[in-house]
Amino acid sequence: MRIIRSGAAPVGIVLALALAGCSVLESNGGGGDAAIDELSIVVPAGPGGGWDQTGRAMQADLQEEGLVGSATVTNVDGAGGTVGLANIANATDPNTLLVMGLVMVGAVETNQSQARIEHTTPIARLTEEQEVIVVPKESPYKSVDDLVADIKENGKKVSITGGSAGGTDHILAGMLMQAGGIPSENIGTKLNYIAYSGGGESLAALLGNNVSAGISGVSEYAEQVAAGELRALAVSGEERVEALPDTPTLTEAGYDVVLTNWRGVVAPGTIDDAQREALTSTVTELAESESWQATLEEKGWDDAFLAGDEFDTYLEGNIAESLAVLKDIGLVR
Fold it and tell me: What CA–CA distance (Å, rounded) separates 236 from 172?
């Protein structure tokens, strides 16, 4: 199976408190030439992960380019992003963006979240990034074959850490098991997946040699790979990545798996067409700016900008496709 470039929660309490102190965005509201005075960017995960990096990069570049008067970032952690999703769906502030992506698509299904992405207003897909499979520097695994063989033999004695359950990292782990010859119905008894909501936590587990392997976006682990603290076994895209030129793709390693993680932003489901247009225009200007293009290069993110009806259509298809994969590998029944 190949995925190419895909890639009842409590409502209101945490985010309402977080946003209460933010004087939230009114169009044409005193931010100089910026159409949006104050923008609130909600990251539905802890610090250090890909969503957090995306939100903070947006904050810096939006302000650098003068596209908003000011931007704040609030972390609202929990349940693969679905706590933040539950709050954003019915938020009343029109100038709020929720960072999300393929991880959330999976988490909605695996957490059986009452709040769904369909309850928000899609704004834009921004980036996509390859995943990388890594092990601690002391690990005996020299290749993906070594890792898969040990899982086949020792099952849940081998642990793989990554992001939230049902997210991109978890999906890739399951697909790797399938491609390695483990039947879908047996993956649940073989795969010991340890989920963390933030990349910083999974990195700490790896550096502490507390887990056997880890899966995350290339940008989250590349620095520690370069420093020799982690060993990269494979990347998940169609081609090798510039940040890890010596690391083979899973296809090169003999596994028929291609998966990339995408990230984007949505707005409250309550906004009107004019408010959506203002946010979409601002994010489009960001995507075309020199600051954002420099950020993409620095982070190793691929530009995957998509907005308007095209993003709506893509998101609908991605949700359906991801649900099918989650069922195939036994994460959703």
Answer: 8
CB 100 within 8 A of CB 263: yes
The per-residue pLDDT for 63 is: 96
Predicted structure pTM score: 0.70
What is the amino acid identity at position 129? E
Q: pLDDT tens digits for 4-24?
A: 333 333 334 334 433 433 433
Sign for the pseudo-dihedral over CA of 240, 244, 248, 249: negative
Q: Which of 75, 56, 67, 101 is nearest to 15 (CA)?
A: 75
Which of 121-140 are b and which e, b meaning 16 or more Cβ less than 10 Å from the residue's Cβ?
A: bbbbbbbbbbbbbbbbeebe
Q: Are the beta carbons of 147 and 212 closer than 8 angstroms?
A: yes
Q: SS3 breakdown of the chain: % helix, strand, coil, rounded to 5?
A: 45, 25, 35
